[in-house]
Specification:
By secondary structure, the chain is mainly alpha-helical. The protein has a domain of 44 residues. Helix content is 44%, strand content 8%. It has a two-stranded antiparallel sheet with strand order 1-2. Strands 3-4 form a two-stranded antiparallel ribbon. Helix 1 packs antiparallel against helix 2. It starts with 13 loop residues before the first strand and ends in a 27-residue tail after the last helix. The model has no long low-confidence stretch (mean pLDDT 79).
Length: 151
């Protein structure tokens, strides 16, 4: 498989004298990688797996309390949606809508924003060993606001 955003030049690869097959897409560590760097197949695959798991939860936990359903969702469905999302992070609107279509929970974008803010909070309060001063500057010219604001 040759990765390119434009039409790749046809190359013939051989190994030990045998010609290797060419693939349009390949699943590597659970992520569908296309030779055109298009993430449609990955988004559709993840959405299908999440919908199947959500269907199992709906069928088997339909008489359970809401907090049990919530725990089942965050334990079983959300990891499917977020697995390796840092590498294939959906940025096209059609991919985002595909993933969030029938889930009716916090959006992926909202959850990632919350995670980024929690990392900044942990850095500010020395809960993790990442120095905040290397990445964010404190506001030194505050007149009416507190000094814990960032630029």
């Amino acid at each position: 498989m040759t990765l390119a955003s434009r039409k790749p030049t046809p190359n013939i690869y051989t190994f030990c004298g045998q010609q290797l097959k060419s693939f349009q897409s390949h699943c590597y560590l659970g992520v569908q990688i296309s030779n055109t760097l298009n993430w449609t197949a990955q988004c559709n695959s993840v959405a299908r797996k999440a919908q199947q798991t959500l269907g199992v939860i709906r069928r088997n936990l339909n008489k359970c309390p809401t907090h049990i359903k919530s725990i089942a969702y965050t334990t079983l469905v959300r990891p499917i949606l977020e697995y390796a999302s840092a590498s294939w992070d959906p940025h096209c609107l059609k991919h985002i809508k595909t993933l969030e279509r029938n889930l009716q929970w916090d959006t992926l974008q909202t959850r990632r924003k919350i995670k980024r803010l929690s990392i900044i909070y942990k850095m500010e309060h020395n809960l993790i060993d990442i120095p905040l001063d290397h990445y964010i500057q404190h506001n030194t010219r505050s007149s009416r606001k507190h000094d814990s604001q960032f630029l």
